[in-house]
């Protein structure tokens, strides 16, 4: 079922969501008749109606908490598995990978109660050296005509990217890098900074939803972090296109840039922006 689900894009999921909720959209013609008033004080412009709740959340991915040392150890073990598959005993002697020693070096630090920066950095340096040697062996097998299957090849490319990122952070003494890989099996997963006390950083897709009259719509889904105000105003415009009028109230995060966009759109004074805590 996972393979079938992967064929459905994020845009198609949002489209199906809108089709399911299509009948919940009020009829504009009936609304115009009901709201018609012969009072001279009534303006001809459509007044704002309804309330929309907008908020973003993270859908946690099923992965272990990423640590640099654990990621490098997993990459090393996968490379050793590739070497086992590519090596033919009758053709040549098996390359020496020092896997037993590398495993002990990893466990000595990962199972230690007190891990200071110096110990972790030393362990990372050792794992990087093991991976460098293993990558050389694998590339040598490829040069001699050996091949691995498509799944392993895609995973190998992720390992190379992970190695480059970890080597860059180690050499420059940094802890961040653009598009940082946090899981080899799911390289598309990114870290989403939420700022919560319990979990300041979560790992998964960031989804922005809207609630209107009790109906929930998924407006945007992205694996990369983004500013909520960039999509909040388009959501309000979608509300207007769907109903024919702007909402009377918008319950959302009170972001300064969002207020600026609201003024540029010249929304009516009845559009009230409130801060909503949906924890």
Secondary-structure content class: alpha/beta
> In this structure, how is the largest beta sheet organized?
6 strands, mixed
What is the domain total for the residues? Answer: 2
* Envelope shape: elongated
Based on CA atoms alone, the radius of gyration comes out at 27 Å
Give me the CATH fold name of the largest domain.
Nucleotidyltransferase, domain 5
Number of DSSP helical runs: 9
Low-confidence runs: 35-44, 268-279
What would you say the CATH architecture of the largest domain is? 2-Layer Sandwich
Distance between the termini: 31 Å
Question: How would you characterize the overall build of this protein?
Answer:
The chain is of the alpha/beta class and 279 residues long. It has two domains: 131 residues, Nucleotidyltransferase, domain 5, CATH 3.30.420; 105 residues, no CATH class. The chain has nine helices and six strands; from the N terminus they run αααβααααβββαβαβ. Strands 1, 2, 3, 4, 5 and 6 form a six-stranded mixed β-sheet that branches. Strand 5, helix 9 and strand 6 form a beta-alpha-beta unit. The longest helix has 27 residues. It is elongated. It starts with a helix and ends in a 5-residue tail after the last strand.
């Amino acid at each position: 079922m996972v393979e079938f689900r992967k064929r459905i894009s994020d845009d198609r999921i949002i489209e199906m969501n809108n089709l399911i909720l299509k009948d919940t959209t009020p009829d504009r013609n009936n609304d115009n008749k009901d709201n018609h008033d012969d009072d001279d004080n009534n303006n001809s412009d459509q007044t704002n109606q309804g309330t929309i709740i907008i908020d973003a959340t993270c859908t946690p991915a099923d992965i272990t908490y990423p640590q640099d040392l654990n990621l490098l150890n997993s990459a090393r073990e996968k490379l050793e598995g590739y070497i086992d598959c590519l090596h033919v005993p009758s053709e040549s002697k098996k390359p020496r990978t020092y896997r037993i020693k590398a495993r002990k070096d990893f466990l000595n630090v990962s199972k230690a109660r007190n891990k200071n920066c110096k110990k972790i950095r030393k362990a990372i340096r050792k794992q990087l050296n093991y991976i460098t040697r293993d990558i050389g062996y694998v590339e040598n097998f490829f040069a001699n005509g050996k091949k691995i299957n498509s799944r392993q090849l895609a995973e190998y490319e992720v390992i190379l990217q992970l190695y480059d990122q970890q080597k860059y952070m180690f050499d420059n003494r940094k802890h961040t890098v653009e598009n940082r890989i946090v899981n080899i099996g799911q390289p598309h997963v990114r870290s989403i900074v939420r700022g919560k006390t319990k979990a300041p950083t979560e790992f998964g897709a960031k989804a922005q939803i809207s609630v209107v009259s009790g109906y929930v719509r998924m407006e945007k889904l992205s694996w990369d972090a983004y500013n909520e105000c960039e999509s909040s105003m388009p959501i309000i415009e979608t509300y207007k296109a769907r109903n024919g009028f702007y909402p009377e109230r918008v319950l959302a995060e009170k972001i300064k840039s969002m207020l600026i966009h609201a003024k540029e759109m010249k929304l009516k004074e009845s559009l009230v922006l409130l801060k909503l805590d949906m924890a």
